Predict the structure.
Amino acid sequence: MAGKLNALTSDSYIDVSQYRDQHFKGNRYEQEKLLKQSHTLYVGNLSFYTTEEQVHELFSKSGDVKRIIIGLDKIKKTACGFCFVEYYTRADAEHAMRFINGTRLDDRIIRTDWDAGFKEGRQYGRGKSGGQVRDEYRQDYDPARGGYGKLAQQHRVTEGRNSF
Amino acid sequence: MFARLLPEKLTVYTTLVGLLNARNYNFGGEFVEAMIRQLKETLKNNLYNEAVYLVRFLSDLVNCHVIAAPSMVAMFENFVSVTQEEDVPQVRSDWFVYVVLSCLPWVGKELYEKKDVEMDRLLSQIEGYLKRRVKTHVPMLQVWTAEKPHPQEEYLDCLWAQIQKLKKDRWQERHILRPYIAFDSVLCEALQHNLPPFTPPGHMPDAQYPMPQVVFRMFDYTDAPEGPVMPGSHSVERFVIEENLHCIIKTHWRERKTCAAQLLSYPGKNKIPLNYHIVEVIFGELFQLPSPPHIDVMYTTLLIELCKLQPGSLPQVLAQATEMMYMRLDTMNTTCIDRLVNWFSHHLSNFQFRWSWDDWADCLTVDLEKPKPKFVKEVLEKSMRLSYHQRIVDIVPPTFSALIPAEPVFIYKYLDESASSLPGYPVSVTVGNAIKNRASNEEILTILKEVPNPNQEDDDDEGESFNPLKIDVFLQTLLHLAAKSFSHSFSALGKFHEILKSLTDSDEGKLHILKVVYEVWRNHPQMIAVLVDKMIRTQIVDCAAVANWLFSQDMAHEFTRLFIWEILHSTIRKMNKHVQKIQKELEEAKDKLEKQQHKRRDSGDDEDMDKNSEDEEGQLEEQIERLQEKVESAQSEQKNLFLVIFQRFIMLLTEHLVRCETGSVDISTPWYKNCIERLQQIFLMHHVTIQQYMGTLENLLFTAELDHHILAVYQQFCALQL
């Protein structure tokens, strides 16, 4: 019976996802707690060219934005396709999860997820090449995210050298 | 419970209750008693929208032979008798009449068959009430002021017309699914219960009745080219369909995929042009005045989901709707145009900004201040914010270039040698270098002392009085260095907060800093808005300064642009939140004190504990006194903000009206329409707060001497009895 009722008052878009930050300082329980109270969202699948202004315009539609931190390539210090959006209230962040997650920014479907809170250092990509991990191994060509994945780029170079 | 959460499926559950009652009379009795208790609770707690569903459920139980028709009629009679009460808000009697009328599509036939004389009397009483109702509030709530093509009717008037037509059709209602008909042989054997006599609870001063509404109509049967015909505006089917679609949105708004799926699987959808109904209901909610039932962005995302689920049909209906709304912009309420701009630009950004702009070439042939070109301009500006300038240039035909927004670049007065003749130029170079070299605040202030003050001949006052040039030089240079992004600018404001605060110590200083921000960023309204927001939050400027700046002569040429009003409403909201925050702190401190006092009373007479808790109480009492002062001061600031805003409106509007009168010119210019509707918008968007200050407003500002055009807005607002 309770399950049925839950279906009627369901609010699944604001649920915490499976992702957990491996670099989080603290145990799983602490991380869960922070995620459930968080006002901060991680935003992924951004184009490298998407600006703070564009992010601000879109995410302001669910409430007043306190702060945006654009994710940077650790080496190049240029945007590498993700950011954090912090709201003044949890309720506004929840609206973003319900209505902005899964819609387009700069023609790309972006993804939002709860974040335990920004800490210095978390604005950098954790991939070996300096960008995000996902851009290390992907095989597709994405002009808005530096073209081919980093590993694929290396292969292309070596292939080029050997194939002659 | 299910009935409350799924009111559109009401008849399924009433049938179930009917069948259970046929098996077990006591169950039926207890169920009805429980519902009556529930009804009393919801009315006590101001949950009027929920109460409607409960009464509707009860009335449908008549159809299922659970409740005897005469006792239902008696309840309705008690409801309608509220219209005889004196000295109660109209919205109170409105609600009781609404409940009765809105149940009749479900149970009208049955009640008329059993008690036609009483029902006729009831309806005639209602008719009398509707005739003498005051409807001053209607113009303020209409999305369009034009009566064509579809009159925007007051909600009770529309419902009455629908019930009249239903009566004329002998209560034949064909849309509602009635499962109980299939079980008639079982149900008609059941024993019915009588509703206990139900006296509506009396009026309490803190009661919050639902606000009156205007029915939103944008489609009729001529708009759906093929397929099933759309029920007429005064058909009861139209009422039931719209009710049910609103219910579905109310239940599922948090989950857009489910909401879209539920809307599209509406039972009976093959007999109606469902896509048109859905689009009409959604826009009806989005444009609802004073505000939509749910956050604006929900509707954008819901429409996108609907387009995904019905890619072959819904986008066309949406395009048709957009086209229609564009055609009718001239008579659309300014607040609704704002929402349309925001919806359309956000929607387009999800579909590569594809639109047949050439279809709207007519907007290029009229004065750019007229609603159509203004709308396109604002849409392109918002679209640019979600993308970038070149994108907008690429998506519109070259003929639209006059409507393309400016490139959002910084305008630096002291950019290069060509500015060397300007009085502030030398110091701008020095201070710019100082900032780049991470000079201290003291060093920078020393440099700034060199800026001549255009306001005075001699400078023997240590440069402490208001020096606009000093502000100009420092702020222009600082913002220029930080122009790269929002974060850079925020960082700059933070780093030099001390200097900025000292420069804006006076009201003139605050006004001037806003002026400078506008001058350098006038091509980038989005940046202006975020900087103003930051400056309020860090107390470099206050809310009244922002209001005075927006209404100043310097900003008159921007007065009708959307970004001005976004800044003003955001400022008012910040003020309101600030007051609420301190009020909450005060409440919490008072609660803490009460708890502390209880603890002391209960703890017995341990001397040490007594002394400690006395100290704590003393501290709390001090804190409460301080917070009390803080609350009063914040409320005073809030009241002053509204006074400033209303005063400015009155001045501007009066000037315009007098000028037109003396020149024998028509007052209805695009500027005037915009301005008077912006005044309405202040009332509507902040009605909860403004209610507190009605007395002052009436005594000081909205007096009988005021031009009747302006006074009318105030009177319409009062008529809403919010």
